[in-house]
Structure formats: C-alpha cells, structure tokens
Amino acid sequence: MPKKIYPGETKDERKARKIREREIKHRKIVSKNPVPTDVGRGITAIRNDKEHTRKIAFVLGNGRSRLAIDPNDLKDRGTVYGCNALYREFTPDYLVAVDTKMIREIHAAGAYTTNNVWTNANKYTRELQGINLFNPNLGWSSGPTALNFASHNGAETIYILGFDYVGIGKQNELVNNVYAGTENYKKVNDRATYYGNWQRQTSMVIKRNPRRRYIRVVETEDYFVPDSLVGLENLQHITVDKFKKILKIS
Prior knowledge:
The protein is α/β, with parallel strands linked by helices. It has helices at about 10-25, 100-110, 140-150, 195-210, 240-245, and strands spanning about 55-60, 80-85, 95, 115-120, 130-135, 155-160, 215-220, 235-240. Helix content is about 20%, strand content about 15%.
C-alpha cells in the first residue's frame, strides 16, 4: 500500500498524527469525542458527558488519613478519582495507576472491565486492552497525576484526601499507606518513601490552575504542610471532621 502524503504538514502536526494513529491502532482511547481545547498537559482525551462536568471532584490518595472517610459517601456528591489498589474495595469514577506492577495487577484481576482505568503510555501498556492512556504522560506519581486529571476534567472545587506525604510512627519514619503489607506495596514496618516528588508535583498542579479551588483534607489541626504547598492562595486545609460537616457525612 502506498504511503500517504500530507502536504504542508509540520513536524509537530506529523508527530501528533502519528500518536493518534497509534492510539487508534491499539484501541486505547475509549472516547470518540474530540479533545477539548483546554485539555491539560498529559491528558490524551476526556469523555464529555454529565459525569465529567460536575463542579466537585474528590481525589483519593492512599495515605491513612482517608480511612476516616467512606468513599461510598462521596459517589453522589461529585466525581471520584482514585489511585492504585483502591479498586480492591471501591470503584471510583476514574482509577489512576502509573506503576507497572499495579497495572499488571489491575489487568490480571480483570478490574479494567468494571473500572475506568487510566495509566501512562509505554511499551507494556500500549499492548493492553481496555486501558486508557495519558499520552504524552507527565511521568508523575499516581496521586498528582489523578489531581492533574481532575483539574482538567471540569471540576471547580477539588477535595484532596489521603495526601499525607509524611510517614507514621513516633518520628514519621514508617510507610504511610492504607495498603501497606499487601501485594505490590511496602511492608508495614518499612521506611516511608521520601515525599519530595509527590509534594512538588502536587504544588505544580495547583499553581497551574489558579481558578480551581483545592481543599486538602487532613487528619488533625496539627497537620503537616510541605514547603511547596505553603502560601498557595487557591489551596486550603481542613480537618476530616470539618470535611464531614461540609458534606453532611455522618
């Protein structure tokens, strides 16, 4: 078959066309709607329906502070974005996982048939059926990637849950994760992962979206605030108790 010629096509246009052609070939983009003009970096496509134009979104990290909140209470109050192993107990509107081990688990479990799964485009994920791709991707951790997704998906107010950053224990030295000790996660007595990249990526999302309102839900009044999150005008911190009162959750 003769090679198609695209007269006047620029280098950038050719690159974008090649990406689209690969996505179509591998059937990775579920939506047939055009990509919105205000789409954010790292977002390939966003489905344009009522579920995705809600003004309120909840982004669930897996820090232990979110254990005080039942995700089921959030379903009817906004769009829920979850990360990684959350699928084991709850089905969010979007499930974001960028770690290859987690994607393998999610796919092997068949969870892509019941979850709207999003991950980064790479050699492995391009071969998977039923998985949506961020392409090009940010190369970020799952939590900040989910936050970035929510920020470009119609939400005006975004509640951030389970973004604890520091570890637990007397000196915050132990891993802080709801799923610690389970498959594909650190053991409960392992040292906490340094939070530098997570907090930096979170702050980048918030700074890039000054018209969005971000509310980080923390466990107690003496919560930890990373340096990069200090002084951001569109970010505030509230306790779990106050969050429940605002949303009228018992």
